[in-house]
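User: Show me a protein chain along with its predicted structure.
Assistant: Here is one chain, sequence first, then structure tokens.
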Amino acid sequence: MIAGLVLAAGAGTRMGQPKALVEDESGPWLPRAVAALAAGGCDEVTVVLGAAPQAAELVPGTAVVIAADWADGMGASLRAGLSALGPAPDAVVVTLVDLPDVGAPVIARLLDRPIGATTLARASYDASPGHPVLIGRDHLAGVIAAATGDKGARDYLAAHPHTLVECGDLATGRDVDSR
């Protein structure tokens, strides 16, 4: 079972509003991220909210976790989301709500490999590591323990070998921080 996790808890101070509530000419970002995970091959999807819990209305039928300590940074929402997943999935695809051009093809490419408990991979764009990140079951506890501040899983990934999956032909992978 492959779980999908959308991190969307932040206040989006540079954006001027929580990114969970942002929309552009292609529509709201949050439902787009949920749809990308589902269409890309995730068996279930969970959204982590914090600053804008009302954004849950944008994704009816999707599991939602509220990160009470969301203001502590992305690490808090990553811990909350991974800790809330039911019986340990085989792997989790973690993506961010502020990657509006990362769609189902990126998720599908990330999942187009043998996936096991020790899998650790991440999308890259023109050889630069980015999101989403694919985390096998054996890494979940370590990622949760290492997720602090705004680093998320960065330190864990730096300390553990992982596969980069080039997706620069599918998306830019750029997070959007301002209008």
